[in-house]
Amino acid sequence: MIIAAADGSALGNPGPAGWAWYVDDDCWAAGGWPHGTNNMGELMAVLDLLQQTAHLDEELRVYCDSTYVINTVTKWMAGWKRRGWRKGDGKPVMNVELVKGLDAAMQGRQVDFVWVKGHAGHALNEAADRLANAAAVAFRDGRVPDPGPGMPHSLTAHPAATVGQVEVEEDLFSGLDPEELAVPTDEEHVVAMERALLGDELRSDPAAVAALLHPDWREIGRSGRLWTRDEVLESIGPIEPVDVEVVSVDRLGPDTILLLWRTSTAERSTLRSSLWLRTGGQWRARFHQGTDEP
Question: Cα dist. 243→8, 67, 106, 126, 240 in Å?
Answer without folding.
Answer: 30, 26, 37, 38, 10
